[in-house]
Structure formats: structure tokens, C-alpha cells
């Protein structure tokens, strides 16, 4: 019985060490922030929604949000910029990464990727 418990503890420790270490993609997106909020019943994560109001091929804008991203709740500088962009309806350039494995307290389950940096865009 004790070897099963030891094996489980080792698996948990290794899983914790792997979280955020195996990056499978890195990219940027430019958009307007639709909403920023906390989610999670047990582990709270910060979720960011981007707008989907840009003209489509038919020339009509869509409503709602285009994608859901997660931000590290301890990344105060990025959260501050996102909240300011939301209030002022400013376009931002979001730098994000996708990773192979996330722990529940690192990432919202159905989010597209993890935001690590935000910059304001000049809108003319």
C-alpha cells in the first residue's frame, strides 16, 4: 500500500514540475478586451475574453467574444493593463503561449492559451 502512495506522490510532484514547461506554441493577437473576470469553484483563475466585433467577409461585424484566454493571477502588471484596456475600450496586442500540460490552478479548462504580456496599440 505504501508504494502506491509513494508512486502517487511522485506523479503529483513530477506533474507540478512539468506544468508550464512544455510550450507547444507562442503567438500574438490584436483585439479589444471584452471582459476580464475570475472563474473556478476551487481554484480561481483569471479569464480574459476578446471581442469578436471586427468586420467579417460579408462586411458585418459580429457580436460577443472571439476567444477565452487565461492570465496568471499573480501577473499584476498584465492584469492592470487588461483592466485599463477594458474600461477605456482600447485595442491591445496580446502575447500568449499554449502549453502541453496545465494544472487546474494555472489555467481555465476551456481557455485558448495563457497570456504573458500585453501592449496598447495606437489606434490612429
Largest sheet: 5 strands, mixed, barrel
In the CATH hierarchy, the third-tier topology is known as OB fold (Dihydrolipoamide Acetyltransferase, E2P)
Using the CA coordinates, give the radius of gyration: 17 Å
C-alpha geometry = elongated
CATH architecture classification name:
Beta Barrel
Strand content: 35-45%
Spatial strand order of the main sheet: 1-2-3-5-4
- Work out the count of structural domains: 1
- Cα-to-Cα separation, first versus last residue: 67 Å
CATH class division = Mainly Beta
How much helical structure, as a percent, in the residues? 10-25%
The run of helices and strands is HEEEHEE
- The tally of helices reads 2
User: Helix- and strand-based class?
Assistant: alpha+beta
Average of the residue pLDDT scores: 75
How many strands?
5
Low-confidence stretches: 55-62
